[in-house]
């Protein structure tokens, strides 16, 4: 079951996705008071099932072997949870979850990986299925951008926190901040970086390209022009936290930042949000406004990571970049006529396939 030819990720996407999209009926769903037609939940689950299985059977990708070793060496009974959590210096929630799962399923790391993948993927599917105008394209972008491999096969712990918060998109759109904040605090026990979203959920509210986002962009420019001062400020803020040595350790000092190509790719949705601002304003759609502002945050964070640390700062945009895969289908559907829309779909698929090959072959040396 080990995935050795990664082109199958995309072969399944086009073959099965095309059949499901064409053959199976859609159902009406209420989205922010509007009646929309979406894939059925059963169709969406069938479509993503292989990606869950592949994540469960993965080998030797990124942090996989570290997670495997940690799981196999962790406590294996409910009576040991308290001691295991107290012995953990940080992210105690993930330790609790690991021991809980192991006490139920035994020592099978494959089932452990698969259970985590189920939660991650279902959180994504629930949001994309309801709020994206094109579920297939959103999933294609998630896979072809290599986010699927980067996070479900690698940064599993942080991505679990990401997807749990992402599943609260409906609450965020309704501005029910208290439950969202509680979920963020829960997710922060799995990965401390989730606390970052306490700021972002307020920054991303409102119309696309509003004053808050413009101030955010101004802040990004200030950081770029004063990287050393920003690093010192970050060091002061992180003092007495689990990340207190982040800006002084070898990883940060030897990190040459996120590649320009990755920054460019992840900035494209924000550019489209700027070019299509007229259509976004006319729609008054809170979903696309939120997605646009999240895309601006994504682009800004990636630009900062290009000048600082791709390993640390470059890992933060995943909290917001998933919204870009909701934004792009909406822009294509509403800002282009029928002929140009088809062209944009073709260009997007083509460009992301090139990026997939570049990332897999040139950057990771896998294909």
UniProtKB/TrEMBL annotation:
InterPro entries according to UniProt: EpsG-like
Transmembrane regions listed in the UniProt entry: 6-25, 37-57, 110-128, 157-173, 180-203, 215-238, 259-280, 292-313, 343-360
Keyword Hydrolase: no
Keywords, in A-Z order: Membrane, Transmembrane, Transmembrane helix
Protein name (database record): EpsG family protein
Natural source organism: Butyricicoccus intestinisimiae
Pfam families reported in the protein's UniProt record: EpsG
UniProt lineage: Bacteria, Bacillati, Bacillota, Clostridia, Eubacteriales
Domain of life: Bacteria
